[in-house]
């Protein structure tokens, strides 16, 4: 069987180095997964690990296209594609919510119920997470998520279409400030708090688990990569680990700090 041609819009995503993955599509006004009780019709992944398996590898995308010729497509957001997407639902007054935020001209997609505005992820805030209903009718798609994109079709029959084809601009300060002002369920640690936060976290680990430099440094490294935006350099982690062990040693031998 010959390969199905990769569409120009998918080629554009590949050229932009955006990572994509296949999604179930509408079929006879229902989700092609054939589950009559589907909770996310034409919006859930066809592949295992969804956005974690997203790629811009042409050979993999070609294999998916051959296997799922009528599928929808989603772009993995956040670090995967260096993208943050602001999803505006016009049916939920999303346009009114954005009036005071001065949205710049950027790559824009017409979605099933509104618009998707594409922005470049700020490198110093690479750990920003997705946020549902950050404002009425407005979702933010960042790390840990994805966004349906052309040439997909919404369950309501509306095609996803490129509305404004221009390279994404940096995330505007108004949206970044909005994200940072909200409660952060993933406890991202930003500049100004990283050293003190890692010291406190590591101190608790050392007291509760083991006074072992290698184990403590490994733990700090995991927390640093997962929560700090941007992560601290390794030399600073070693300094934090040494300071923790000095304090723990003084306390466990009877000396005050």
Structure explained in plain terms:
With 257 residues, the protein is of the alpha+beta class. The protein is 32% helix and 19% strand. It is built from 7 helices and 12 strands. Strands 5, 6, 7, 8, 9, 11 and 12 form a 7-stranded mixed β-sheet that branches. Strands 1-4-10 form a 3-stranded antiparallel β-sheet. Strand 2 and strand 3 form a beta hairpin. The chain is elongated and about 70 Å long. The chain starts with 7 loop residues before the first helix and ends in a 5-residue tail after the last helix. The model has no long low-confidence stretch (mean pLDDT 88).
Order of helices and strands: HEEEHEEHEEEEEEEHHHH
Uncertain spans, ≥5 residues at pLDDT below 50? Answer: none
What integer is the average pLDDT? Answer: 88
The overall strand count is: 12
Structural class by SSE content: alpha+beta
Distance between the termini: 73 Å
Residue share in β-strands:
15-25%
Number of helices: 7
Largest sheet: 7 strands, mixed
Shape: elongated
How much helical structure, as a percent, in the residues?
25-40%
Radius of gyration: 22 Å
Strand and helix layout:
Layout: H1 8-16, E1 20-23, E2 26-27, E3 30-31, H2 58-67, E4 72-76, E5 83-89, H3 94-97, E6 108-110, E7 114-120, E8 131-135, E9 138-141, E10 146-149, E11 161-164, E12 169-170, H4 173-181, H5 194-208, H6 213-227, H7 234-252
Helix pairs in contact: 5-6, 5-7, 6-7
Describe this structure in a few short sentences.
It contains seven helices and twelve strands. The chain has 257 residues and is α+β, with helices and mostly antiparallel strands.
């Amino acid at each position: 069987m010959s390969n199905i041609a990769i569409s120009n819009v998918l080629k554009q995503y590949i050229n932009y180095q955006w990572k994509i993955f296949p999604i179930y599509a509408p079929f006879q006004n229902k989700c092609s997964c054939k589950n009559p009780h589907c909770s996310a019709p034409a919006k859930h992944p066809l592949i295992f690990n969804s956005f974690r398996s997203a790629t811009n590898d042409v050979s993999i995308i070609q294999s998916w296209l051959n296997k799922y010729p009528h599928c929808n497509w989603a772009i993995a957001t956040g670090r995967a594609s260096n993208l943050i997407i602001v999803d505006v639902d016009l049916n939920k007054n999303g346009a009114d919510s954005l009036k005071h935020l001065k949205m710049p001209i950027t790559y824009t997609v017409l979605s099933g119920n509104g618009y998707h505005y594409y922005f470049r992820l700020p490198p110093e805030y690479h750990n920003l997470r997705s946020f549902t209903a950050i404002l009425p009718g407005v979702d933010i798609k960042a790390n840990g998520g994805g966004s349906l994109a052309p040439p997909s079709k919404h369950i309501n029959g509306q095609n996803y279409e490129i509305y404004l084809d221009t390279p994404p601009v940096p995330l505007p300060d108004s949206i970044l400030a909005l994200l940072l002002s909200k409660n952060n369920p993933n406890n991202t640690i930003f500049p100004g708090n990283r050293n003190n936060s890692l010291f406190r976290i590591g101190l608790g680990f050392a007291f509760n688990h083991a006074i072992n430099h290698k184990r403590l440094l490994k733990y700090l490294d995991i927390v640093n990569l997962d929560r700090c935006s941007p992560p601290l350099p390794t030399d600073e982690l070693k300094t934090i680990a040494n300071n923790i062990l000095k304090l723990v040693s003084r306390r466990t031998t009877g000396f005050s700090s």
